[in-house]
Design goal:
Number of domains: 1
Order of helices and strands: HEHEHEEHEHEEH
Shape: globular
Bound molecules: flavin mononucleotide
Number of helices: 6
Largest sheet: 7 strands, mixed
CATH architecture: 3-Layer(aba) Sandwich
Helix content: 40-55%
Strand content: 15-25%
CATH class: Alpha Beta
CATH topology: Rossmann fold
């Protein structure tokens, strides 16, 4: 009985960190990338991380305030990130401006021709919010193959592992 009590106490004291996946998923290609990302967040050895998944149009400042790290996914649209992801940033920028300084994040972008503007825009905003890029952006053009899903998996696993390390040190 006493031992059981100790177990329960330890479980309650172990901090669960939150990884927020904010994505705009508009096609089967983007759905494949999202699924690879979600798979990566559950890579072997990652513990104590709760993954919350929000479409960009539904993600809020409250979601950001509750999170310890971020995976962002967007199509390239007219030389920029999607309007949906931009709206997400418009909504959360000032309410969370100094709340998540140093939080790890990773970005994947899907396009057909040129994703440069999308990456530049996301990096400029996340820099303003003090988020720390912990993996190179993953840029996927056209048909989604194994290389692309593996790269996005790796990106998400890296962010999740970084969040888990934070969990271990707090
Ligand atoms: C209005 C519009 C603008 C787009 N602009 C870009 C762009 O600037 N750069 C790019 O690489 N792809 C662009 N695309 C392609 C989308 O990124 C692509 O359709 C999306 O990632 C989904 O890919 P899929 O249709 O092959 O699944 C654009 C698509 C649309 C509909």
């Amino acid at each position: 009985m006493g031992e059981r009590y100790v177990h329960i106490m330890c479980a309650e004291l172990t901090p669960t960190k939150v990884l927020l996946v904010v994505h705009h998923t508009t096609s089967p290609s983007l759905q494949e990338l999202l699924e690879a990302a979600l798979d990566g967040t559950h890579a072997d050895g990652i513990e104590g991380v709760e993954v919350r998944v929000r479409p960009a149009l539904a993600a809020t400042a409250v979601d950001v305030l509750a999170a310890d790290g971020f995976v962002l996914g967007t199509p390239a649209n007219i030389g920029y990130m999607s309007g949906a992801l931009k709206l997400f940033f418009d909504n959360v920028y000032y309410p969370t401006l100094t709340a998540k300084i140093g939080a790890p994040y990773g970005l994947y972008v899907h396009g057909t021709l040129d994703t440069t503007g999308a990456v530049r825009a996301v990096e400029s905003i996340t820099k303003g919010m003090g988020w720390e890029r912990v993996h190179e952006p993953v840029l996927v053009m056209g048909a989604v193959g194994k290389d692309a899903t593996e790269a996005v998996w790796e990106l998400a696993a890296t962010v999740a592992a970084t969040v888990a390390d934070i969990a271990g040190s707090s």
